[in-house]
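Chapter review: from sequence to fold.
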Amino acid sequence: MLKVKNISRERSAELYAKAKTYFPGGVNSPVRAFKSVYGTPLFIKKGDGAYLWDADDNQFIDFCCSWGPLILGHNHPAIREKVIEVMQNGMSFGAPTALENELAELILSNNKFIEKIRFNSSGTEAVMSAIRLARGYTKRDKILKFEGCYHGHLDALLVKAGSGLVTFGETSSAGVPKAYADETIVVALNDKEALVKAFNDFKNQIAAVIIEPIPANNGLLLQRKEFLQYLREVCTANGTLLIFDEVISGFRVGFTGAAGLYNIKPDIITYGKIIGGGLPVGAYGSSAEIMSNVSPEGPVYQAGTLSGNPVAMAAGIAQLTELNKPGFYNSLDEKTTTFVDEMLDFVKDRNYPVNITQIGSIFWFAFDTKAAIRKAEDIDPHSMDRFKTMHQELLNRGVYMGPSGYEVGFVSAAHTTDILNTAKQAIFDSLDVVFGPSQPSPGGRALNEQTDYRE
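The token string follows.
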């Protein structure tokens, strides 16, 4: 059992109090406010390898990894040195540089699923551009998305399902006009019947279907390959473009992402900041034919002063060069699988109602169930109380997870076996507290039987 300490948050609390006078809720992105867990946010001072240090000098093993893109860990020397080298010549030009060509060639020459790419500044921007491209190419307006898949904060996709098998989206944010939501159809994941009904109800109207092929923004809702292949076939039959949102899964589960893992070719793929070593960058790619519709070659307008920013391109070149080395993903996946398998053995031995889902170097704790979860509506909201307790106990044992039970964890190349063993013991001790006799059992459904969590 690891020594428990009540970590000091005095300096972080001071910074948070001041931040609330500057920013809405004291943060520049909502989940950072720690509203889903206990205590005030931690203000981070530095990161190195698998570790973070906060403003109070507490050290943590980090499984957030800047929400995924730090697959090599914090402050990787190859990335740092490449960025410093490029910065000597300036940090922004708003004009083309050879670095854009170099990163594009590195991606395209190793990815059979896309022929041309366009860099921009974020995953949200990449998805926004992909949606616009799909509408421009097909000359249709409606978009179909799946409940529980998050695609950034653009208006057209900040929608949730209403009641019924197939529904128009209901806005999930104030400020999103109903007219925008009325162009978005929302169906449940893993539901072929709903998919067929949507295409029948809106025949020849759907420009694109967008899905996280590995849904990892609202739990880790792994889909069977058969469902994704069926989705590909339905889109092809209806002249609808299939968009894989790989902002999380791209370059994380393999160099060619989920498209390569499942060997399914979407029409458009979006990527996020992993292609910039964690710096602000995004991209979308497709066939040369579809991409020829993007301005200045075609009528679909998309632009950005910081698109192809040289510092981000430099970081991306350094990171993807490392990821493209033989055996990188095999080593990372094997390490993560061992880590997760040992945690699964622990919860099974204790008979704790926990399912730990894993794909590649991504993992997720689902509480008060022993079954794999494939739909957002099957996550018991009461179970988030379990995560709140675990999150607090982990912080007190020197382990940092994203501050929401709906978020996934990431293992990086910097997480050594010794580091993972230390983290694993902290997780074991924390789970013993979560399910200890003093903890109430949250309300909700009866427990499901254990199923195989891997496909």
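Two observations follow directly from the output. The CA atoms of residues 233 and 242 lie 10 Å apart. The two ends are 33 Å apart (CA to CA).
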